[in-house]
Amino acid sequence: MLLSSCNKEQADPYHADVIKREEIHRAFGTDVSRVLFDHLYVVVDSATYSKVTSDTQWHHTYASIDSGLPDFAPLSKDAATCYLRGHQHSIEILGPNNTYGEPVGKSGIGFSLNNKGEDYHLGATPKLRALKDSLLTASETVQMEVHGQDHTWFKAFYTPSPGTALHTWYAFYNPDFLHQLSGKKHESYSREVFLESSYEDHKLFNSISEIHLKCTLQDFNRIAQELGYLKSEILDKEGGLYTIKSGDISIVLEPSGDISYSRITTLTCELNKADTSVNQLGNITITNNGKVSTWDFNQLHIH
User: Fold this and answer.
1) What values do phi and psi take at 185, rounded to 5?
2) Separation CA 240–CA 252 (nearest Å)
């Protein structure tokens, strides 16, 4: 997860009337960074976290679950964060006593970036379809310790958004980090290679196909502009909902003037095989229907 954005000064205010279909689609022929979804995080209450981390039957059938880098170790009883691993995507679930001090209900979405014909280097910057001096102006280089030494994992760019409860960031990932983890050289970074040692394809969870966000007007405008300037395509606009295709997933943006903070409300996931089970993990409901799995977080936000 990425936390610095809550400490930066916001450059410009956003206004609800700037999100227009024709603006998002303009200048699609330009050289723009390729964007792919990588992972998301959600902070849950103690009862939910306890259920997520202790339901061994669900662990056995749904997904590989671990405590993260550097070695994807099994969960310990005092772990404050856990990770569900798919073929290309991860879900990070934090308890209320997480080491970042993040409050229940907070969430974030991370994307990867790649510039055509450009190898990874720390000087890489996002290529937008037009210059926009209020978007992705801040950056953070993230290092992780592997085999006793710190190595650069990625450099992330984000739009300063003090006070937001829904972070978004866009990162250039270092292929040498994969070498440090596995001992194998890689010309480029891929999500599949990063996850191959922890993903278990005999379990249900494969990937995330859609994320539904209910946003304050300010966060709605920020996220829509970020995705628009990275050449994501609006697939549909109906009843106040904007469905945006971003890489290999869809983002549904629902603006609201009636909520105090933005949140992830549902996830739609793809399964490796058909299933019809329903799992109630505290305030998260996971409903499987065929090869589609829906995560409902709405109860998490009822106080």
Assistant:
1) -75, 145
2) 10
Taking the C-alpha atoms of residue 92 and residue 61, their distance in angstroms, rounded to an integer, is 18
Over its C-alpha atoms, the chain yields an Rg (Å, rounded) of 19
**CA terminus-to-terminus distance, the chain:** 25
DSSP-derived pairing of the beta strands 166-173 and 107-114: parallel
CA–CA dist 284, 298 (Å, integer): 8
Give yes or no for residue 160 having a pLDDT over 80.
Answer: yes
E strand intervals along the chain: 34-43, 64-66, 81-85, 90-94, 107-114, 138-146, 149-158, 166-173, 205-215, 233-238, 241-246, 249-255, 263-275, 278-281, 284-296
DSSP letters for 32-78: --EEEEEEEEEE--HHHHHHHHH-HHHHHHS-EEE--TTTTPPPPTT
Query: Residue 57 and residue 279: Cα distance in Å, rounded?
Result: 10
Stronger pLDDT, 58 or 11, i.e. the higher one: 58
For 280-300, letters b (16+ CB in 10 Å) and e give ebbbbbbebeeeebbbbbeeb
Domain count, the chain: 1
Distance between CA atoms of residues 224 and 108, nearest Å: 15
The structure tokens listed for 150 are 């710190």
How are beta strands 64-66 and 138-146 bridged, if at all?
unpaired
Domain coverage including residue 101: 4-301
pLDDT digit string (tens) for 79-127? 999 999 999 999 999 999 999 999 999 999 999 999 999 999 999 999 9
**pLDDT higher than 70, residue 154:** yes
